[in-house]
Fold:
Amino acid sequence: VTAAGGAYPVFVGAGLGPLARAVASAHSSRVALVTDAAVWRFHGERIARSLAAFGPAVIRIPRGERGKTADTVRRIYRGLLGAGCDRESLVVAAGGGVVGDLAGFAAATFYRGVPWVAVPTTLLAQVDAAIGGKTGYDLPEGKNLVGAFHPPRAVVADAAFLATLPTREVRAALAEVIKAGMVADARLLEAVDRSAPRLVAGDARALRPIVDSAARIKAEIVSTDERETGLRRKLNFGHTVGHALEAATGYAKFLHGEAVAAGMVVETALGVELGITPAAVLVRLRALLARVGLTDNLDKFRLHAVADRIHYDKKRSGDDIRLILPDAWGSVTECRVPRYGLVRYLMRADAVTLWKEGV
Ligand SMILES: NC(=O)c1ccc[n+]([C@@H]2O[C@H](COP(=O)([O-])OP(=O)(O)OC[C@H]3O[C@@H](n4cnc5c(N)ncnc54)[C@H](O)[C@@H]3O)[C@@H](O)[C@H]2O)c1
Ligand SMILES: [Zn+2]
Structure:
């Protein structure tokens, strides 16, 4: 990936060898490993072994989206101080998108910035969150409202981590894979469709090429537009409504990917209504999400509860929201939609109908 501060490599499915090499080449005074309880339980021993030469301090944080707060960031700062870290130290973030976003943000701000290495352990983090240098945390008002761009030195996405992921996490991550396909690659959508049951079952051989393609799409897009001035915004497809849904439900009801799946359907339906999206795209998208089992949760929320969260969206620009809407299968376009128009649409649309059949 090319970034303003220098290019960094992304290793997919190459074991943990690249991790030790990346850490060694940073020549740090101290190495701190930030991780969460689940990752530590399943994979701690192997990660610790690969870092043994550096005698890392281990900082454990609570798991899940509800812990993606300023409190947890403070906890990481204190852990870094307690471990004797200074400006020459290195943070290794081993975990899902939550650990990566939090530890990456702590690295961006501790002593005004120390380097870090991302070791994404979830499918979602391997195909999306760990690539691109966005870090941050949530406020009760909205998702990721505080953050910094701070690209890692390297991303080490080892396939072996994925073997212990719960099925629900795998499914949710496939929403981001489908998003990548909707944004840039119809072939990826076909590949997901073809191997859907094996992907959901966590079959490593089926996952490998999918992780590869989705990670490559993300890497290519963020390399051309690191600071999100144009092209990178396309990756926000499904996220305007998705983030609002997460905030409206207290980050407790839906996994990020599940909310994005819902967001993609709602935004696509709006695209159809605005005459930008062909109706067939909505039908195909719904069918594909159903194939990977992402349509079951959807009658559990009311769109009008989501509506007032739209005001906190970062893609707001004055009274408009920049929405990413499909204009063909495997292609999206950016549209400015009046914020109140979107809110009115959400007040009137019915999630269940949207989901099952209608526009
Ligand atoms: N920075 C970005 O560009 C970007 C992009 C997309 C998403 N995100 C963020 O990523 C977050 C979602 O990431 P996530 O889905 O990885 O969530 P997560 O970090 O909460 O991980 C999901 C769950 O899986 C557990 N887990 C992690 N690795 C495991 C493993 N190998 N085996 C078993 N369990 C494991 C975790 O403990 C957690 O309970 C959201 O906060 C989202 O905003 C960031
Ligand atoms: Zn996302």
User: Anything to note?
Assistant: The chain has a mean pLDDT of 94. The first strand starts at residue 10 and ends at 12.
